[in-house]
Design goal:
Helix content: 25-40%
Largest sheet: 5 strands, mixed
Shape: globular
Number of helices: 6
Amino acid sequence: MHIRQATISDLTAIVQLLADDELGKTRENFQLPLPDVYLQAFAKIDADPYQYLLVVEGVDATIIGTMQLSFIPYLTYQGGLRAQIEAVRIQKEHRGSGLGTKMFQYAIDLAKAKGAHVLQLTTDKKRPQAKRFYESLGFVASHEGMKLHFY
C-alpha cells in the first residue's frame, strides 16, 4: 500500500470510488469518458496549494482509497490554519483492513506538518459506522454541523 498525492491519471478511479457508495451513487455521474465537470474540478484542486487530494494504491497499483484534505487560513485562533477532510472513500473489499486508519494517520501527520491547529470533518448522519470510526481515531463531535444545499 502506498499513499500519495493524486494525479490526473487517477481521476477515473477516484470518481468511481466516490460513486460506488450508497450516498455517492445518488450524486455522482460515473461514466466513461468522465464528464468534463470532473476534469475541471480536478484542475482547480490540483492548482490550489491549499488542497491535497490523496489516493491509496494497493499492491497491484490500483487505487483503493481516496480523501481530500483542504487547508483553510482564517483570522480566529490568531490567524490559524484549519484542515478539513472531505470525500473519504475506501474500496468495499478493503474496508475493515486498517486502510482507513493509515489514511487518517497520513492526513493527521500532513495537517500537523503544514501547521494546522485543528483537523475537522463532517460525516453524514446516515453513516453511523463512519462516525464510530472517526471517534475511534480521537475525533470528537464537539459542534453541530449544518448545510444549505443550492440545487
